[in-house]
Design goal:
- This protein is α+β, with helices and mostly antiparallel strands and 498 residues long.
- It has helices at residues 4-28, 71-74, 211-220, 242-248, 303-306, 360-367, 370-378, 382-385, 433-442, 464-477, 489-492; strands spanning 31-38, 53-62, 66-69, 77-84, 91-99, 104-109, 133-138, 147-160, 166-172, 184-187, 190-198, 206-210, 235-238, 257-261, 275-279, 282-283, 289-292, 295-298, 311-318, 321-328, 347-350, 353-357, 399-401, 420-425, 428-429, 447-452, 460-463.
- Strands 21, 22, 23, 24, 25, 26 and 27 form a seven-stranded antiparallel sheet that branches. It has a six-stranded antiparallel beta barrel with strand order 1-2-3-6-5-4. It has a six-stranded antiparallel barrel with strand order 7-8-9-12-11-10.
- The protein starts with a helix and ends in a 6-residue tail after the last helix.
C-alpha cells in the first residue's frame, strides 16, 4: 500500500516534469531559425563587396510580433528569412532596430500574420542569480531540428559585448556553437539572456547577453532608433599599490580608480591623478568594482543607469579632498578608427592608387590575427598605435592604401605596398579621406608626392596630370563601377575648398 505522503510526492514530481515538458514545447514554439544571405565588406578592395555567403542563426518572438536575434546574425544581410520550428515555410523579414555594440537586433516581418500564432516570450527584468539553471534553445550546426542544452550560470561580468560597447555578460557551462547565436536562454520560464558567443577549443563555455541589456535595448528603440549606452571612456588604473596610495594621500579605507589619461580634456572635469571614489552613491573598491546584489562588477555598470542629460555624478579625490563632479558620458568611444556599424568602407580611387578610410573593424580584424599584428607592429603602423586615439585637429581619421597599386606604368620601380597609412600629401598632413579628395580636386602642382607613416615605406611621386588621366582606364580595366564611395560625390564634384 502506498503511503499518502509518498503518493503526494509522486504526484508533485509528475506535475513538475509535466510542467517542464509543457514549458519546453511553449518555448520551442516561440523560437525560429534565421537564414540570411550576406555581403560583407572587402577591406582590401573597398569598391567591391565580398561574395554572397549563406549563414544561419536563431531568434525568438517577443511582443509586437517582433523577433530578437544577434546583430552579427543579420549584419550586412541582403536577405533575411525566418522559419518557425516544425514548419517548412520561410518568411521574409527586415531589421527594425540594431545595436552592433551590444550585438542585439530586432526583426520585423512584412506580414505579422506569419507568426501570429507564435507565443511571445517574457523577458526577465532582474539579474539572474549565479548558479541558476538555464536552457538554451537554438539551431546550431550539426542538424536541422531545434536543439536544447542545459547549463549553469557560472559568472556574470560587465565587460565587452561587441567590439566597442560594454554590457552585462553571463557565462554558462553549456557550449554555444555557430547557429545558436540569437537563441534564448530560459530560466524560470523567462528569457534570462541571448546566446551570442563561445570560446573555441574550450569545453562547455558559452556566453549570453544578459536579459537586462535586452530590456534596456528594447526600451531605447521604442522611438524607432537606437541612441546607445552612456559610458565613461577615460583611461584609469587601480589604486591597490601602497606607494601609489601614499603618493595620492588616499585615506586608508578609500577605494577607487585613478585617472591616468583624459580622452577629452576640453569637455571633462577630470584631471590626471584624480581618483574616482564613487559613482553616484556607490563606493568603488580599490580594483575598480562595485557591489551589485551578490555580484562584483566594474563601476561603469552604473553609468547608463545614473546618466542624466549626458552626465554622470562622480565623487573624486583630488589634492587631499573629496569633490563632487558631473562627468560627460558618451554612447560609444570615438576614435581615429571609427566603426562602420553595418555600413561599407569609404574609398577614393585616383590613378593607380585606391585610398580607404580606415575603420575599427579593419584594425580589430588585423590585430586579431597574430601574423598581421606582428607585421604591423614591426612597421609601427598607426592602425595599431592609433586604435584608441581621439580625432584631433591634425588627424580626424586615418587614410590608407589598402592593397597594391593597380597595374600602370606610373608605379614602375616602386615596391608593392598594402595597408599603408598616408601621412603627408605634398608635404601637407593628411586629416581625413575628405581632405585627401579636396586636396586632389584643387591641386595644381606638377607632382603628387605621397609619404606613408610606416617604417620602411617608400615615398611615391607621380605626375599629377598623368595620374589623373590614368584614373578612367584603371576603373575600366578593373571593372570598377565608381571612382569613389557615394559620400564623396559632392566633395569631388563640388567647388574649390575654402
Amino acid at each position: 500500500m502506498i503511503r499518502p505522503y509518498i503518493l503526494a510526492l509522486m504526484i508533485s514530481v509528475y506535475l513538475v516534469f509535466d510542467q517542464v515538458a509543457i514549458g519546453d514545447d511553449d518555448v520551442k514554439g516561440s523560437v525560429v531559425k534565421i537564414s540570411v544571405t550576406m555581403r560583407n565588406p572587402d577591406f582590401f578592395h573597398p569598391w567591391n563587396r565580398a561574395n554572397p555567403t549563406e549563414a544561419t542563426g536563431t531568434g525568438f518572438v517577443i511582443d509586437g510580433h517582433r523577433i530578437v536575434t544577434n546583430a552579427h546574425v543579420v549584419r550586412y544581410a541582403s536577405q533575411i528569412y525566418i522559419q518557425p520550428d516544425q514548419s517548412d515555410e520561410k518568411f521574409e523579414a527586415t531589421v527594425q532596430a540594431i545595436s552592433y555594440g551590444l550585438d542585439l537586433a530586432v526583426l520585423k516581418l512584412e506580414s505579422s500574420d506569419a507568426i501570429s500564432d507564435l507565443k511571445p516570450l517574457e523577458i526577465e527584468t532582474t539579474i539572474t542569480p549565479l548558479r541558476s539553471e538555464v536552457n538554451v534553445y537554438g539551431f546550431p550546426i550539426g542538424g536541422n531540428q531545434i536543439s536544447i542544452t542545459k547549463g549553469i550560470v557560472s559568472r556574470i561580468e560587465y565587460t565587452a559585448i561587441g567590439s566597442n560597447l560594454l554590457g552585462l555578460r553571463a557565462q554558462i557551462d553549456a557550449a554555444i556553437n555557430p547557429g545558436n547565436s540569437g537563441g534564448p536562454a530560459i530560466c524560470g520560464g523567462k528569457v534570462a539572456g541571448v546566446a551570442f558567443s563561445g570560446i573555441q577549443n574550450a569545453n562547455n563555455i558559452g556566453y549570453l547577453i544578459h536579459a537586462t541589456e535586452l530590456v534596456a535595448f528594447l526600451k531605447d528603440v521604442e522611438d524607432g532608433k537606437y541612441d546607445g549606452k552612456p559610458n565613461l571612456w577615460e583611461y584609469s588604473q587601480t589604486v591597490e599599490n601602497p606607494a601609489l596610495r601614499a603618493r595620492l594621500k588616499l585615506p586608508k579605507s578609500a577605494g577607487g580608480v585613478m585617472v591616468n589619461r583624459i580622452r577629452d580634456a576640453k569637455g571633462s572635469p577630470l584631471q590626471v591623478n584624480d581618483v574616482i571614489m564613487k559613482i553616484g552613491p556607490h563606493p568603488i573598491d580599490s580594483q575598480g568594482n562595485v557591489k551589485v546584489e551578490e555580484l562584483t562588477l566594474s563601476f561603469v555598470y552604473y553609468c547608463p543607469l545614473l546618466a542624466k542629460d549626458g552626465h554622470v555624478p562622480l565623487t573624486i579625490w583630488r589634492d587631499g579632498q573629496e569633490l563632487e563632479v558631473q562627468c560627460p558620458v558618451l554612447p560609444e568611444v570615438i576614435t581615429q578608427l571609427p566603426y562602420l556599424n553595418g555600413t561599407y568602407p569609404r574609398y577614393f580611387i585616383f590613378g593607380p592608387l585606391a585610398f580607404e578610410a580606415a575603420s575599427g573593424e579593419l584594425a580589430y580584424s588585423l590585430m586579431s590575427d597574430s601574423r598581421w599584428s606582428a607585421a604591423l607592429a614591426m612597421r609601427k603602423s598607426p592602425l595599431i598605435s592609433s586604435f584608441y586615439e581621439l580625432p584631433n585637429e591634425s588627424i580626424e581619421e586615418l587614410v590608407l592604401v589598402p592593397s597594391p597599386p593597380f597595374s600602370h606604368r606610373s608605379v614602375k620601380g616602386y615596391r608593392p605596398i598594402g595597408l599603408s597609412v598616408v601621412k603627408f600629401i605634398n608635404g601637407t598632413r593628411l586629416r581625413s579621406l575628405k581632405h585627401l579628395v579636396e586636396f586632389l580636386r584643387d591641386c595644381a602642382d606638377e607632382f603628387i608626392e605621397i609619404e606613408f607613416a610606416e617604417l620602411g615605406a617608400e615615398t611615391m611621386v607621380f605626375n599629377r596630370k598623368e595620374m589623373a588621366a590614368a584614373t578612367e582606364s584603371v576603373l575600366t580595366d578593373n571593372n570598377i563601377r565608381k571612382q569613389y564611395s557615394d559620400d564623396l560625390d559632392a566633395v569631388w564634384n563640388g567647388g574649390k575648398s575654402k
